[in-house]
Amino acid sequence: GGASATPAIRLNQLGFLPAAGKLAVVETVEARSFEVVREGDAAVVLRGDLAEPADWAPAGRRVAIADLGGLSEAGRYRLRVEGLPLSDPFAVGHGVYSDLAAAALKGFYFNRAGTALQAMHAGPYARAAGHPDTEVEVHASAASTTRPAGSVISAPGGWYDAGDYNKYVVNSGITMSTLLAAWEDFPGFFRERDIGIPESGDAVPDLLDEAWWNLRWMLAMQDPADGGVYHKLTNLRFDGAVMPEAARERRYVVQKGTAAALDFAAVMAQAARVYAEFEPRFPGVPARMRAAAERAWAWAQAHPDVPYRQPDDVATGAYGDDGFDDEFAWAAAELFLLTGEAAYLRAFERHAVEPDVPSWAQVGALGWSSLARHRDRLPDEAIRGRVAAAIDALAQRLASRSREDAWRIAMAPEDFVWGSSAQALNQAMMLVQGYRLNARRDYLDAAQSQLDYVLGRNPLGVSFVTGHGARTPMRIHHRPSQADGIAEPVPGLLSGGPNPRQQDRDDCAAAGGYPSKLPALSWIDHDCSYASNEIAINWNAPLVYVSAAIQSLTPA
Ligand code: 9MR
After folding, report:
1. Where are the CATH 2.60.40.10 domain residues in the chain?
2. Whole-angstrom distance, CA of residue 207 vs CA of residue 101
3. 361 Cα–ligand 1 center, Å
4. ipTM of this complex
């Protein structure tokens, strides 16, 4: 680990599966060709021409692509280009992303709230419990007749959202959907995988045990009196950079809202389906989830336009969103798949617009993807065709953008948002959805290329996953990593990545500020940088999905 001088040859630092597409990016204007040399005996095993150098707006530099696709024998190699230092070594092998997918899932365990992490699971990152959340105050914004302001509820467990210690329903929405989709799409990958959590070895896959940790918390965020769902469970202001047990501020549930209710309804409907297979270990839980989903949906029907408005005395993450058609469409799709009731499919058709790359605020694609996954449950060929065509149109758009891009990725300058690493992975996830429908190899290759970007084939030369790669983030904005006295950050966590809006620039002035304003270079490996170097559950989830997808789908 550790980010040192940026190499001139950029590669996926975890390497490649033998039959995968394999690209490297070379910062050069003179060289025309490349060689791949084997570690050990230094034999040249592949020669090729570099592609014509091209400009790339997000980083303002010319680069050339080296296509190493012909390299399919397992081994360790380096890339040689005249006039440049040899590349870092890279691997070609079976299973190169298995540990990554497991570690990305384990990242959720490391962010569990309200429990101690034991050394047998957490190793050096063992820590005491914090934030029990068994006595949480109802904030004035959430007051009701049965739960007036100042009354106390219990909503323990769940995951800390990110580098901060608060718990947000809306952001749990896309996160749970993505993790449960990883289970639904790649059960073979996750069924026997032991990631070393307290529940490992029981009759349930670790992915679903870990997901239940947050689902159980989410269930407690629903008001039993009316089915409405609180937007978040939070301090009034962010905790300092201390370990969880040292953060003792009062906790509140804050304002019910339409987005929280619908995200909750969608997640519980999907979870009710998924956990039905494991009913013996979760007695009564699927039925409880279904009832919770239906009540939240009913609440949203009665309150179709309640955006979250941050109260004056609350300063933590807002996750505010004013448009709810995508949330309605997503929840309707999941409720249709759970219940088979035609009214939900009509609601989907009323609210849905063509899918786009999902984010916490734009969740429409999650509903489209679920319908595509279970299209056998759709009533006729017309709607089956429409769902498949909508997903394919998005995958096609992303694949063609990637094909024409100097770095062979689908990231346009405007994709370098807060959490750009996850934007890249969510693009990959939609390419995978397309690939699952029609097995177009260019979709899989484009998804691989997105993963390559995240794992080091980028202008910063950094693998954005802590502990996974030769050059990785060391100073993520993550309170436990900052406060635990261990130099290496908690492993398996995805840094948000370059974000040219630099909303934290004042907080990072003392650390020397950002090195560049260019979209793909606007990143600092410093814990001052919550806008470029934080971690978050909704970012780690597509890392789980995409690493498991590439590992599972690439032909052997
Ligand atoms: O990921 C969120 C990003 O889209 C928003 O622009 C940003 C500012 O509102 O907030 C991000 O989410 C943060 C949340 O508000 C609080 N916990 C940490 C999240 C990741 O930085």
Report:
1. 18-93
2. 11
3. 11
4. 0.99
